[in-house]
Amino acid sequence: MGTEINREKVVLKDTEVKPQEEIWNYILGFTHIALVKCAIELGIPDILENRESPITLVDLASEIGCSQSLLHRVMRFLIHYKVFQEKPISETSVGYAKTPLSRLLTRHGKHSMADLVLLTSSSTMLAPWDKLSGWMLGNKDLPFEAAHGKDIWEYSAANPDFSKLFNDGMACEARMLVSAVLESCSQVFEGLTTLVDVGGGNGTALRLIVEACPWIKGINFDLSHVVSMAPTSSGVEHVGGNMFDHVPKADAVFMMKILHNWADEECIAILRRCREAIPQNKGKVIIIDAVLGRDEENEFKGLGLMFDINMMIYTSIGKERNLEEWSHVFHEAGFTRYTIKHIQALQSAIELYP
Q: CA-CA distance, 148 to 145, in Å (whole number)?
């Protein structure tokens, strides 16, 4: 007699399938950012953006100078996740076309986020994540320092290529946030004749503000090695210095995503310098930063938690704050009142008064 193998059909319950699906998404999660980075480096978003009609696989591969079979597999993945889309060219063929998401990945688009993708997916920014558990278990070296031997600010000062990558990446976010501020609450700039952007990087944010509010004279204030690389911009003066020592005088101080890099003690010290720089009777500090818990149902809640972990990895002492934590910092720095205006972003616009 032959041996009969009993093959039972294995039926998994939803409670078993879902966790398996989720764990594979974690295991292979890096695939998304890696292929988006690859698409940017190959110039695919720009090629599609500059075409009136869809482009075939053959033509796209020819323009890039790469293998058709490899390109097909990469595009199949990115189309599935709606980075690009397929559109019919004829009754028998389809081509690749841009999407609202791919427009954010062009290298020189008005709202491009490409440089920020290239920054966060760089080996320099990925290496510290491997050091997180060791730091939490008591290793004395903080994650970024354990990976690179310096904190992120010292490393940037010593590595001009990374400094440019970092500031270009920050400029991406600056463009998006300034646009949201100007659209939602441009009145925060009314009545100002001078505005100093503390930690303004290459001056992108201030340039956009001055373009929209040409009555304002802008002072872009950052470390000397940062402003030395900033492009000349009409209405904007670049000034080098350290915000812990002093802040240039102006009607108002502007800080976009600066305070979340620092612990409370450092934030209080920075804000005290800002208070010294503005008129005590009518001056103010305009802060663009996240306020966690402002709305538990807010679409940006999960994003805020991710930003908070990023601060832990890259600055170690930085964090995203809730309203109570912000209030403590403002009070200790000597400010008497503040208002919060919501914008179409994770961050809010906070006006702080002496």
A: 5
The confidence score (pLDDT) of residue 197 equals 96
Predicted pLDDT at 285: 97
**Catalytic hit among 80, 260, 328, 331:** 260
DSSP bridge partners of 95: 87
pLDDT for the residue 9: 56
Cβ neighbours, 10 Å, residue 323 = 14
Span 103-129, pLDDT tens digits: 999 988 778 999 999 999 999 999 999
The rounded distance, in Å, linking the Cα atoms of 39 and 99 is: 14
Task: Determine whether 328 is an active site residue.
Answer: no
Region 6-26: mean pLDDT is 71
Question: What pTM was computed for the model?
Answer: 0.80
Distance CA 170, CA 191 (A): 28
CB 130 within 8 A of CB 88: no
- As a whole number of angstroms, the distance between CA 195 and CA 210 comes to 9
Q: Which two tokens stand for residue 18?
A: 């879902």
Q: Report, as an integer, the average pLDDT of 25-45.
A: 94
CA–CA distance, 94 with 59 (Å, rounded to integer): 12
Asked if 56 and 63 touch (Cβ cutoff 8 Å), the reply is no
